[in-house]
Design a protein that fits this description.
By secondary structure, the protein is mainly alpha-helical. It folds into two domains: 70 residues; 83 residues, no CATH class. The longest helix is centred in the first third of the chain and has 23 residues. It is rod-shaped, with a radius of gyration of 27 Å. The chain starts with a helix and ends in a 6-residue tail after the last helix. Bound molecules: heme C. Heme C (HEC) binds next to helix 7.
Length: 175
């Protein structure tokens, strides 16, 4: 019977790499239920074996449950391109600087970009208010679809797009 003492420690050694993911997980209660079930099945196996009528089925099901939990809680790659940028890095002065540098050469009342006599589609980023009011389209064009800057003529970097993303997700504030 001493085998049962090993059940839980063994499970947690198998899962030790995921430990923080377990208690921090959105479905931690469900994970706990499944892991307890897996533990109980191992116990069922050892009890049966002790009586000399062991079937491997409980052990296999238990292993599958543990594997299933592990697979389910493996962290997914986040869609944000650069997670090292926190919203604090995306303070508005930086966002304004980026938009002025990468977008406003075309999107301003008096475009400086050669060949542009008027802002394309009438879209201008002259003031902080212009930028804030159009935060969603800016995000859509320069982060989600990356069609802007058109042909990336102004050489916008991935890092700048990530900053716009962080700023937008944090509420597109202007202070
Ligand atoms: C080199 C010039 C140029 C630069 C730089 C530029 N754009 Fe544009 N933008 C255009 C042109 C041209 C159009 C019109 C495209 C069209 O007609 O489909 C446009 C259209 C848009 C539109 C309207 C899209 C729509 O479908 O209605 C938005 C929003 C926009 N740009 C945002 C930006 C943002 C944000 C940046 C900077 C990250 C930027 N643009 C940089 C030239 C530019």
């Amino acid at each position: 019977m001493h085998n049962t003492y090993f059940t839980l420690p063994v499970l947690f050694v198998m899962l030790s790499n995921h430990y923080a993911m377990i208690y921090g997980h959105q479905y931690n209660w469900l994970i706990l239920v499944v892991l307890s079930l897996a533990g109980a099945l191992v116990r069922v196996y050892f009890v049966a074996r002790h009586k000399g009528e062991a079937s491997l089925a409980p052990l296999l099901i238990s292993a599958l449950l543990v594997l299933g939990v592990s697979a389910a809680i493996i962290p997914r790659p986040v869609e944000i391109m650069n997670t090292s940028n926190s919203p604090a890095d995306a303070e508005f002065s930086r966002i304004e600087f980026i938009i002025k540098g990468r977008c406003a050469s075309c999107h301003s009342t008096e475009p400086t970009q050669a060949g542009f006599t008027a802002p394309p589609k009438g879209i201008v980023f002259d003031t902080a208010k212009d930028i804030a009011n159009q935060a969603e389209t800016i995000h859509q064009q320069s982060v989600a679809s990356k069609v802007m800057p058109i042909g990336n003529l102004t050489n916008m970097t991935e890092d700048e797009r990530a900053l716009i993303d962080a700023w937008f997700r944090a509420g597109a504030r202007t202070e």
